[in-house]
Design goal:
- The chain is mainly α and 321 residues long.
- The chain is built from 14 helices and three strands.
- It has helices spanning 5-17, 24-36, 41-60, 72-84, 93-112, 140-149, 155-170, 174-178, 208-221, 242-256, 264-276, 281-288, 294-299, 301-315; strands spanning 185-186, 191-195, 201-205.
- Helix 1 runs parallel beside helix 3 (41-60), helix 6 (140-149) runs antiparallel to helix 7 (155-170) and helix 7 packs across helix 11.
- The protein is globular and about 60 Å long.
Length: 321
């Protein structure tokens, strides 16, 4: 199902308005081109945010902002500085790789539009995503606190509880959660059909407690004025989109006293808990919608580190001396 255009336009246009003035006219044209190509709202946000960051960095470091004056050396320096900033609060390698790819697409579009003869990134290779830091996950105590924060019997509490239950159980992406339609949910079979990256459809299973939460939500959903909407998740005045769910999660996190929360943490956490509880990697890849093992290896590091610590506590080689 299409995203809520008001959500998408508002976020993208806000980013666009903060792009450096010298780059903004072309960034605006790119934005229109991306929309015409049907790119997802998240992709458009990432593209525009990268142009904004690179342009701001150029201006702050006395490099030319105009795209026609960019050189491979400028781009390499920008990437190197981000890699050097990989402190606990700095960007992960995967984030730097994403920015590299986004900037690459920016210059590629400029070449396709005959604004540039050659991309300054034409012969550049992306940094390897070899970040060894375990992905942070939510603890069982934090998950229980989130569930407790949505225990009310009003329709919104039931909706929020069902969303959080489904995130915990499936680890699906935010875009997949938003796109769920009424016809996609099968409470008897305990599965939901989602549309993942590359418009790939997959069936995602969920457990009995999630089925119960979805059933409770469905009953109150049927009483809402917007009950005939094809989208499964309803808001106060229509359906709820990406920004609405993101805001809800943060509000519930504040209520639960667990600090900053974003939807992708559930994906990390679901993978971690699956492996920790003995689930197979092949089943996790299928359920999560991963085409290769690269993401599995990154998401599984937290579980591997915890398993190693538990094994050490059990074996305690130094205690035998």
């Amino acid at each position: 199902m299409a995203n809520n255009p008001r959500d998408d336009d508002t976020t993208a246009r806000t980013i666009l308005s903060t792009v450096h003035a010298e780059a903004r006219p072309w960034a605006t044209s790119w934005f229109r081109s991306l929309r015409a190509d049907g790119k997802s709202y998240r992709t458009i946000e990432n593209y525009l945010a990268t142009v904004r960051e690179f342009s701001a960095w150029c201006a702050a470091n006395d490099h030319p902002v105009a795209f026609a004056s960019q050189t491979p050396a400028n781009v390499r320096q920008w990437i190197v500085e981000q890699l050097d900033d990989r402190s606990p609060t700095g960007p992960a390698v995967g984030t730097v790789v994403l920015r590299f790819r986004c900037l690459q697409q920016w210059f590629r579009w400029l070449v396709e539009e005959d604004e540039l003869a050659v991309s300054p990134m034409a012969k550049m290779k992306a940094p390897k995503a070899t970040d060894e830091r375990p992905v942070p996950v939510l603890t069982d105590e934090q998950l229980r606190a989130l569930l407790h924060a949505t225990r009310g019997k009003d329709w919104m509490s039931r909706r929020d509880h069902a969303i959080i239950r489904l995130f915990i159980d499936s680890g699906m992406r935010l875009g997949e959660m938003v796109g769920i339609r009424v016809q996609d949910v099968d409470l008897e079979a305990q599965v939901v059909l989602v549309v993942g990256k590359g418009a790939r459809h997959r069936i995602v299973p969920f457990g009995s407690k999630t089925a119960e939460a979805l059933d409770r939500y469905e009953r109150v959903r049927n009483t809402r004025p917007q009950a005939n909407e094809p989208q499964w998740w309803l808001g106060t005045r229509g359906t709820i989109g990406h920004n609405g769910i993101a805001a809800m999660l943060q509000a519930r996190a504040d209520q639960a006293g667990i600090g900053h929360l974003h939807a992708h943490q559930f994906r990390h956490t679901a993978a971690h808990r699956w492996l920790k509880m003995g689930g197979t990697e092949s089943d996790l890849m299928r359920n999560a919608g991963w085409a290769n093992s690269a993401m599995l290896q990154r998401y599984g590091r937290s579980a591997a580190a915890e398993r190693a610590r538990e094994a050490h506590r059990r074996i305690a080689p130094g205690d035998s001396l």
